[in-house]
Specification:
It is a single chain. The protein is an alpha/beta fold and 399 residues long. It has 17 helices and eleven strands.
């Protein structure tokens, strides 16, 4: 291992470190140092301490020695280069760091931002205003519907949907963004070359193919570990202007995300649910603690304002109903809309029953219900979907 004192003495390393700011290899090496707090490095960076002298002097002796080893040709070749090779293997991969032009500025507001982020996909996603959508890994059918419906509407309004590509609500959030052909970012708790969970390999590929982005603070070849996911949540909320919790039990990772969001001065939104439902207990607790209760995507857009404008989802009130002949038709002008109203005129009907009666796919059924829900014609209840009061009147006239 290369020995080093307060200043870099190895000529080869000194030449590499003569730049005024750390480069990608420097940030990567710093991120691998044990027991080095991101908060300290953030402070040094913003204080514009002289690189490398003042930075290295502030490290402990073991940290300084290991950093110098990593920046020596031997350590660089054995440790750093295999990781960097993963980035250079494809043009869509990158190693982001605080001096990278694509580094998300919002992450600088975190008390403990990641030192680096491994990226795979479309970095332009980081330029869009983002909303995080989180919730249970074992949601109800209503939760799956709402996660996808809200993500779709918010994506169509110009928001990037951020989530963790986990089972349940996370996956539905990404699906909603993809169905709207919108931007989505998946922040994962493993190296980007390890898909977790494995059954989401197809979802991961579709996110990449659709111009989405995968992010991780863990280098390639890192397998998922339970301890990584709570830390991953701070990045999901840190990238976002607001966080929507769809369903969550009283003790869940989603409530950790909500707490992080509040600490990061982000807006927190929560969907209410049935009083007896355990998956609604966490959302109700958040609402009691000051989270904004929302029932439609417009509630979020109006609350945030700025880039999100209610007018940008006016067209979302006419979502596609069941597609026939390969053509999408809008619910407000489509005779298929009346078909759904007829199916619901006798009371609440579950999603499974609607799929069976309509002969449509689950995805198309959800799209149709979303269109009618946003148009104020149907509402969701404990047993499924039913006509809202205005739609009931119109439905009565058609019977």
């Amino acid at each position: 291992m290369i020995e080093g004192g307060a200043l870099v003495k190895n000529g080869h390393i000194q030449q590499q470190l003569n730049q005024q700011v750390p480069d990608a290899s420097d940030w990567l090496a710093l991120s691998l140092l044990p027991r080095l707090g991101a908060g300290r490095l953030k402070q040094w960076h913003h204080e514009r301490r002289a690189w490398p002298q003042q930075w290295l002097e502030a490290l402990s002796v073991p940290q300084r020695h290991y950093f110098l080893y990593l920046r020596h040709p031997q350590g660089h070749g054995q440790v750093l280069q295999p990781m960097l090779d993963w980035c250079t293997a494809e043009s869509s991969r990158a190693l982001l760091h605080p001096d990278h032009p694509a580094w998300p500025a919002l992450l600088n507001e975190l008390p403990d931002p990641p030192l680096v982020l491994w990226a795979w996909g479309n970095l332009a996603c980081l330029e869009q205003p983002a909303i995080a959508i989180v919730g249970s890994r074992h949601p109800s059918s209503a939760g799956r519907h709402h996660a996808q419906a809200f993500a779709r509407a918010l994506a169509e309004a110009g928001s990037c949907i951020v989530s963790g590509m986990a089972l349940g609500i996370d996956a539905q959030a990404h699906e909603g963004a993809l169905s709207a052909e919108g931007a989505t970012i998946a922040v994962v708790g493993s190296g980007l070359d390890h898909t977790y969970p494995r059954q989401h390999r197809s979802l991961q590929q579709r996110i990449l193919n659709a111009g989405g982005l995968l992010l991780s603070e863990h280098p390639p070849a890192t397998e998922a570990r339970p301890a990584f996911f709570p830390r991953r949540n701070r990045i999901i909320t840190g990238l976002s202007r607001g966080v929507l919790v769809v369903e969550a039990a009283l003790r869940s990772g989603s409530l950790i995300s909500a707490r992080l969001a509040l600490e990061q001065n982000r807006d927190v939104f929560a969907l209410p649910g049935a009083l007896e439902a355990s998956l609604s207990a966490g959302c109700h607790a958040l609402i009691r603690q000051g989270a904004t209760l929302v029932t439609t995507p417009t509630d979020i857009i109006e609350e945030l304002g700025g880039p999100w404008r209610a007018s940008s989802i006016q067209g979302a009130e006419n979502r596609p109903a069941c597609r026939e002949g390969g053509e999408r038709q809008r619910a407000g002008h489509d005779p298929q809309a009346q078909r759904w109203l007829v199916l619901l005129r006798d009371g609440a009907v579950s999603l499974d029953e609607l799929v069976l009666r309509s002969g449509c796919s689950v995805s198309d059924t959800l799209n149709a219900l979303l269109a009618l829900e946003l148009a104020g014609q149907v509402v969701m209840c404990g047993n499924g979907w039913t006509l809202s009061a205005p739609s009931s009147e119109s439905g009565a006239q058609t019977r």
